[in-house]
Amino acid sequence: MAIWLDHTSKVIVQGMTGSEGRKHTQRMVMFGTRIVAGVTPGKGGQSLTFEEDPIPIYNTVREARHATGATVSVIFVPAAYTKAAVLDAIDSGVELVVCITEGVPVKDTAEFFAAAQAKGVRLIGPNCPGIISPGRSNVGIIPPNIARTGHIGLVSKSGTLTYQMMYELGDLGFSTAVGIGGDPIIGTTHIDCLQAFEEDDETDCMVMIGEIGGDAEERAAAYIAEHVSKPVVAYVAGFTAPEGKTMGHAGAIVSGSSGTAEAKKKALEAAGVRVGKTPSETAELVREIVRKTAR
Fold this sequence. Notes:
Layout: E1 10-14, H1 19-31, E2 34-39, E3 47-50, E4 53-58, H2 61-68, E5 72-75, H3 79-92, E6 96-99, H4 106-119, E7 122-124, E8 130-133, E9 137-140, E10 149-156, H5 159-168, E11 174-179, H6 190-199, E12 205-211, H7 216-227, E13 232-237, H8 261-270, E14 274-276, H9 279-293
Helix pairs in contact: 2-3, 3-4, 6-7, 7-8
C-alpha cells in the first residue's frame, strides 16, 4: 500500500524528449518506475530507448493513454507551455498529474487547478519535486537512493527539505513522500496528504514540512486536531527570517504575525504536533516516536 502511487502505476512523461525530461526519465526507469510513453507534440511516432527498452512518443496524452492504459502523467515542459500540457493530461482521463515545472504564472495554475478539480484528477505541483513510494515507484525528481521502504509518510512544501528529511530518516524508510511545492496555488495540500496518510495502513506516523508565509500550516493544524489520530511531527522553515522582511518566493509572504514560523509552531503544537527547530531535531523527534510505536 502507498498513497496515489505504487508498482502498478503506468506513467507518461510529458516533455520526455527535452533535456530535463530525458534525464529524469532515465532516473525514474532505473528506479523501477513503469514509464510506458512520452508525449511531445510534433514528435509522435518516434521513440527513446532507456535501459535497452524503447519507449514510444505520442503527440498528445490522450493518444498515449489510449495506447498504454497509463494512469499517471509527469510534466517536464517549459513554463510557457505548462498550462496546455496539464490541461492535455487532465482531459486525457489520467488519475494523477505531477507538474514539476517552476515559474508557472499563477493565472495559469488557477485555470488548470480548477480544471483538475472539476474532473476529479489529483494534481501535485506545480514547482514541486514530485512523489515517491520507495521500492515501488518514483515520479518526479526526488533522488531515489536516499530512502528505503518504511512506515513514515512525508509531505513537504520545500523540495530541498524533502530530500534532507528523507536522507535524515533514510534508515527508517517511508511509505510515500510527497513534495507538494511552495507556489501560492498548488494542486495538493498538506491536508490532502495528511488525510491520505491517516487512511493508509502502512503509514504509522507523518512528517510535515512547511515554511513561512500563508496559512497552510495553521489550516493543517486545525485539520490534525479534528481528524488525525496518528502521530505527526513538523518542521517549519524560516525561524531565523528577519521580522517584516519578505523571504524567498511568492508563496512565502508574511503579513504581520500571520505566516511566521513561530505562529505556525504554536498552532501545530496546540494540535498535539511536535515541532522541531531544525531538520535534524525534527528527525530525532520522529525517531522517538518510532521507537515507541515500532511494529
